[in-house]
## 1
Amino acid sequence: MKPRAALWRFVLAAFVSVILLIVIANEIRQPIDATTRTYNADFTDVSGLSDGADVRVRGVRVGKVQAITLKRSGDGRSLAGVRLTLDKRFSIVRASHLAVRYQALTGLRYIDVENPAEGDAVANRITDVPTAMTQPSFDITVLFNGLQPVLATLSPDEINTFTENAISFLQGDDRGLEPMLDSIHKLTAFVSDRQQVVATIVRNLSNLADGVKDRSQYLIQILDELELPLGQAMSVLDEFRKSQIAGSDFTRAVLRLLAAAGLRPGIDINKAFDRAFTNSYDAIEAIKRTPVIWDNIPPPVEDGAPVPCAHGRAQLPETMDVLLNGQRVVLCNK
């Protein structure tokens, strides 16, 4: 192989490697292809947020987090100062709100800008956002405090689904309450004391509600209202178990009795009534004949008296009387 050809191959391989490295770096960093403006925002908690995190408006990436620093406020509180960029098509104004959201269960977070002004709102633009306009991040693991025995019976996929639904609803996702209630139902499906589980979830969600302002208050109210009928149902849980054990057997026995009485699916109701009335008439006729039957029945025999013969006594010859030596032996006619 000639040295010049080998050099060209090396240069080509290096060029391709550099291009791939740039593509991978851009994919990881996901830069914004737009003119941006820089803002500074103060948060009381930015756990999980890192440099290079996304800044989004209605789910669309419109900026990046450039730096996170620790600062001291005028009243002595420790705050997190976040420097971020935002597409110039949007501006942060007094009505805007910045919140740290979950991007994935691995702990990635992003900043969600709510109610931004569209266009170049120079007069109302705010470049230094105070804590009154920001919402800190929260630790979703607080939701599972006290549920270790329950979570031990669940698979990782079920726990992840429950966590995703809780995060989505608490952060104001538009999917609604149904996924969250389905997750709670699965969480309590194989637990005997469901009321305690729901009460624990409500208590943990109440702790999270202090840092979440979207729909958490509605969720807490709904879960509190659901806890009352659930507790009443748990008080009569044994009755449900009894009906489950004896209900089907009892129903089958009743169906057999009804079938024996002639009540079957698809019967001719007219014929059934005719047969019932005919049987009633026959029963009445049988009752009418009862006195005649009693007239032909002799009175019962007294204790110790010989039983009478139905066809009369047989007349014994005199020789038999001698042989029996006067004993009272009765022979009946056939």
## 2
Amino acid sequence: MKRNNTFRTLALAALMIIMMTPLMAKTINNSTASYLRLGIGAREIAMGEAGSTISRDVASAYWNPAGLAKIKDVEVGAMYNISMNLDRSHQYAAIAVPFRFGTMAFNWINAGVNDIEGYDDTGTPTGIFDDSQHSFSLSYANRWKKLSFGVTPKFFLSTLDDETETGMGVDIGARYDINQYLEAGLMVRDLYSKTAEDKVPMEASFGLAVYPLIGVTLAADLKWEEETPYVAVGAEYWTSIGKDPEADSKLNVISVKERSTWGEMFSYAQTGVRLGFNDGRLSAGTGIRFRNFQIDYVFRLNNHEIMSDDHIVSMILRF
């Protein structure tokens, strides 16, 4: 009876969040270091960027460093946006290594614009230059019983033509495994972050992940940035197309519980489909996961006339 009451309450809360989402959609982000809000990892982006609770791989360094505590293997991740127009680029790379004292991860995010035409005050061309933004971070995560926690110090590097600007920042996060059906997460991005001239706005996320059926994940994040709340929601379904003994054996089938061998790399395949909503934008994606290798794709609509829709590919290797 208690479990039924829990699910009724959870279903009602999820319905209210979904109904409120269109009313709380935020506008385009033009703040300092706004490239840090583009998101990384095709899986989380496809699920509406509701990543504070669902991410439990190397991408957790971005979405919630506490998720790194769930990693069992060394993981290497990378992402590239293959569709950005206006000579823009966006990519990231990361590595996470579990130790006895916790998990460490190094993360690099880059966004930029190439071949910008420069002009002086009189309108005379001054040549071509580039704008490149970098974030380098080192995360640490650990867990105590059902509670996971993590922290991510960050270093910013911005180059515009022949000018360079630096900055520092920090993210913190926590996650709690309520039971096998429900997890909660809290993440504060840029708790104290600034460049030489500007402060980076803080963003807070509180999320829930629900596992109602085998292979199904439902997620919702309530986010605040500059006193503007909005909601991100997403859903995912994973299924086995091989004979993986782990597949469909628990409610969240994406995590790897035991160390893997390269001989099993292309065995035990699982496929996933995803759908999400965030900031008035729909996203949808798919992925395929082997024992040691995972590749994901997402298509994300952009509701701004000058921005092209996103086609993003990411991958994870496990050693």
## 3
Amino acid sequence: MKIGLRILLGYFLILGLSAWLILNVVVEEIKPGVRATLEDTLIDTAQMLATLVADDVAAGKVTDSDLMKRLQNYAQRSIDANISGIRKTSLDYRIYITDKKGIVIFDSDGKDLGKDFSQWNDVNRTLQGKYGARSTRSKVADEGSSVMHVAAPIMDHGNIIGSLTVAKPISTINPFIQRSQRKILQRSAWLWLGSLLIGLGFSWWLNRTLRKLQTYAASVENGEKASLPELGNNEIGSLGRALEAMRDKLEGKQYAEQLMHTMAHELKSPIASIQGSAELMREDMPAADRQHFLNNILEQNSRQRQLIDKLLALVKLEKQQSLAHVQLVNIPRLLALIAEDANPRLLAKSLQLKQDVDTAITSISGDELLLRQALGNLLDNAIAFSPAGSSIHMQARLHISPHNADNAASVHISISDQGPGIPGYALDKIFDRFYSLPRPDAAKSTGLGLPFVREVALLHGGSISVSNQVDGGVVARFCLMV
């Protein structure tokens, strides 16, 4: 099954289940919601009417009162109202009044006059000063015959002298409930249909985009000339660009290997020739000339050998996908060793190395030799570009990420100098192989130090950055995950 179809099925299944659950809850809540609204209306009506009839009930004028006669004739009024498409042609309130013993003394329907209603919840609880209401079927077997009754106390000088109940058949609100449920079901069906169309469109787009990426990957695998297709600014586009970058990097590494073999072949002969010349210079010649040429030959010989060694080390490192030797590396001890290694060069330029290591930092997992070489390279660069008599600051800090659920920690090691800084045109090139800047002492480097440092950082899951400081000099930041 294709991934697009899997995503579509999963999407529609989740959407369908969610919509069904929500729809089920909404539809089931309509009926009790409407009934609660009806009950609220009945409470207001009962309370108002109980207040209006209180004087007549207290005076015993229930049958002779004009108000009671009007209530008696209430249901006889004609009405023809259209309520949101539902026609209303009858007035459905039934009103009855009981005395304080629960005996019916007024009934708008006239059928229960004189009966004892003291056991009905609406009357019984109201006469006790509580909220009284009930829902009773007029036909026991017919759920649709339920009638809602809500009572209110009739008060006289703070005493309950009776109760007034307003009743309304629940069947009168069923058309509104059914219409709401019908509309919800209809619109839900449209929602499901729309969701299906959206899901189909998304599945088509995803399959189309993945097919482009698959075709590109197949072309690369076959060694064909292929350019990355337009995949959009999204996760798939990011994946495609990552594959393109990986391809470029792999091709770059192959080039580096070829370059290494070429340079090794080209440089071995000159080195042997220089060495031979140095031996021949043992013949008679002025001592000053002999010493000058000898020093020059040996210096060039040493530099070319150094170039080969560093290039071999870099290419070997670039081919590694993971660390070959992993052990616990004590960071404070490692920094102390690096400082000790650099001490002769620091003394030669009267440089002061200031160290500031966070006491919370202990050990990390890594390759101690590679880390020592990488950090040593950074310190060597700082020494080379620092003016005599200045200072170099080596700092190590423990960072806890607040945005990571695992509270991931990292060690940030920075080495800063007070040198001339990096020219703007060179900032994007300093990690390129063989790229180097002129040094104050006129010595030329191999241009392989920073690429080596970057590979060491990547193998340790870390990063390296080099930038100019605001107040002058350069700072190199080497970050390692704990």
## 4
Amino acid sequence: MADREIVIMGPPGAGKGTQSERIASSFDVDHVTTGGVLRENKDMETEYGSPREYMEAGELVPDSVVNEIVSKALAEIDADDDLAGYVLDGYPRTISQAEYLDTIATIDVVLYLEVSRETLVERLTGRRTCEDCGRNYHVDFDPPAEAGVCDDCGGDVVQREDDREEVVTTRIEEYERKTAPVVEHYDEEGLLVNVDGENSPDEVWATVRETVTAEV
């Protein structure tokens, strides 16, 4: 059984990935993302098919498949003596996923990064990505040295389709609709800790580190 079982939540652009990586390195836990475990296990056969079948059809991978793959990933972490546990980033995203997680894990704390919609839109629409190596930049906060050119590989730095304002707004609304019941669920369980995600990454980390230290 993992000693540290942490969930981090927040809308797109809230900074979950940044804080999860810091949690992972500081507390000797694995950073588990939904996208990561699906890619690593895309050919895994479940009762409801493999992730690849849904991905290639352009469909969302159903909760039943995601649950089974996350369960496998957590079991592997439990068996790894070099890891003290995990931080789940991007899971659970629906109430059915949260209820399933309750049956296979004993979560210590759920961190929710609170960020206003205005700030989220500003962060996400300003994001730029290298087409070749995937490095992320931001037009205001972290631009490449030469506009449109990746510092690392010289590839083209562009705005992704899903970082355009209308798409970003839809993503945020969809996230809020799906995860509101999950947030309420963990609040009722006494596990939810709200963290002000409007601050700088270092300021947010100070709060996150203090919270995780106290709770786990």
